[in-house]
Amino acid sequence: MGVTMQVDWLIVGAGFTGAVLAERIASQLKQKVLIVEQRDHVGGNAYDYYDEQGVLVHQYGPHIFHTNAKHVWDYLGQFTQWRSYYHHVLGVVDGKQVPVPFNLNSLYALFPPHYAAKLEQALLNEYGFNVKVPILKIRESANNPDLKFLADYIYQNVFHHYTLKQWNLTPEELAPSVTARVPIYISRDDRYFQDTYQGLPKHGYTNLFRNLLNHPNIKVLLNTNQAEIEGEVKYKRLIYTGAIDDYFQHIHGELPYRSLRFNFIHHPDEHYQTVGTVNYPNEYHYTRVTEFKHLTGQRCFGTTYIEEYPQAYIRGENIPYYPIPKDEYRQLYKKYEEEAQKLNGKVLFAGRLADYQYYNMDQAVARALSLFEKNICTA
Ligand code: FAD
Ligand code: UDP
After folding, report:
1. Quick one: 189 exposed, middle or buried, by C-beta within 10 A (0-12, 13-18, 19+)?
2. Does domain 5-83+202-256+323-376 match CATH 3.40.50.720?
């Protein structure tokens, strides 16, 4: 860079966390922000672009926005219109494609009607209707032999192998909250999420980020790691949204993450599959296949879909997509949190990697908005 630059805030990372905080600081506090981003684009893992065939795709895996937090939905609504979209997922079980999360429709798709009705009754007697029950809880609590059979069947066919592929761990080795993200749903509702607000930004995520960052008090420096500008930029305070163990140069040891490899395939037909995502718990090395046109509603010739291959995370070689929700890693994270506290608020940490939390997009936005209200606005 050469020339020294002076700003009020340096923000590391242009994903949802960094972009929302930049927008708030620039527009509400009228202070100057520089965002430094190591990738060649804004948007973090939500980045989307038009591929060579003109299909809008998500470079880092499929992203569907869903939330119950009206303030998050309304806040982002200032920067994008929404395309209403309800995500549907089918899982391949015993050679059939059945709704996931597993629900009463899945039951009837897999078992003869009289037996499905018996299993349905057992579920209703035990838990009631329109109730979500995590698979690990059903397995623990099922006494009735029909329920026991069903719990083992769903566990084996939907969760066990998928989770081994995705995490290289069994469901029991992870925090129960991981498999509880996709609970058994005692209902006929086939949607993947039941949140009040669901959709995708009408003109894409990248467009939403451009609007968020389009403010005279915000400058964005792409293709640059924070380490490269040390000493070149003067700032009063720093917000860091990258991996917290990277920030502290792994003084307490490396936090583990899970990575993915994506395979994009273009197909000349109008559609490749009937729904947005098909999960393959038991076959192949990939976990799921997502066809973007279902999500985006784009109309064009041909279609592009993506296969997700879970990978070990290797620092410097691939991307740390998922913190691994497991007690011992949470304890390790806490050591870094203590280091962060010693900085007395001069550096603020937030985001999926900085908080080492399995945040969905809405949770990352909610975290950023509350950090702004509680620790920045009032400081
Ligand atoms: P990120 O998006 O990871 O942004 C952090 C940014 O910081 C990155 O761009 C990184 O390059 C940059 N950075 C890090 N360190 C440095 C450094 N030292 N110098 C410069 N730059 C740096 N959520 C949903 O709600 N719905 C979904 O359907 C969904 N699907 C997902 C699918 C996949 C495969 C994955 C991996 C995640 C999905 N998510 C989904 C979660 C969503 O991606 C996150 O909630 C969101 O991206 C978190 O935003 P963030 O800003 O905290 O982190
Ligand atoms: N899961 C599973 N089978 C499925 C779908 C999900 O075992 O068909 C488990 C798996 O452990 C997965 C977790 O539930 O990692 C959360 O799934 P989700 O779809 O929320 O994962 P993400 O979209 O965050 O990758």
Report:
1. middle
2. yes
